[in-house]
Amino acid sequence: MKDQLRKFIVEEVLNRPDLDLADDEDLLSSGLIDSLGIISLVNFVEDETGLDVPAEDVTLENFISILAIERYLDRLRGQA
């Protein structure tokens, strides 16, 4: 899922396919992704995984980096 997330973020959200985005790069505090980008990212995650991401789960902790998103999805799958 990391590669799919990275590709979506750099190509669709940032429109910078040449960007080398690290798994632990801070997407939010750095300003790379804004609120509209987060909405797109959440929609992508839901579409790709078939999981519902509750609004209360869209937090800095869960979406700050590709690694954080993967950890969050692992937790969410464990609850399903």
The DSSP helix count reads: 4
The domain count comes to 1
The ordered string of helix (H) and strand (E) elements is HHHH
Strand content: under 5%
General shape: globular
The whole-angstrom Rg is: 12 Å
Cα distance spanning the termini: 18 Å
Low-confidence stretches: none
CATH architecture annotation name: Orthogonal Bundle
Main sheet specs: none
CATH topology: Non-ribosomal Peptide Synthetase Peptidyl Carrier Protein, Chain A
The number of strands is 0
Q: Which structural category fits the helices and strands?
A: mainly alpha
CATH superfamily: ACP-like
Portion of residues within helices:
55-70%
Average pLDDT reading: 94
CATH class: Mainly Alpha
Outline the fold blueprint.
Blueprint: H1 2-13, H2 35-49, H3 60-63, H4 66-79
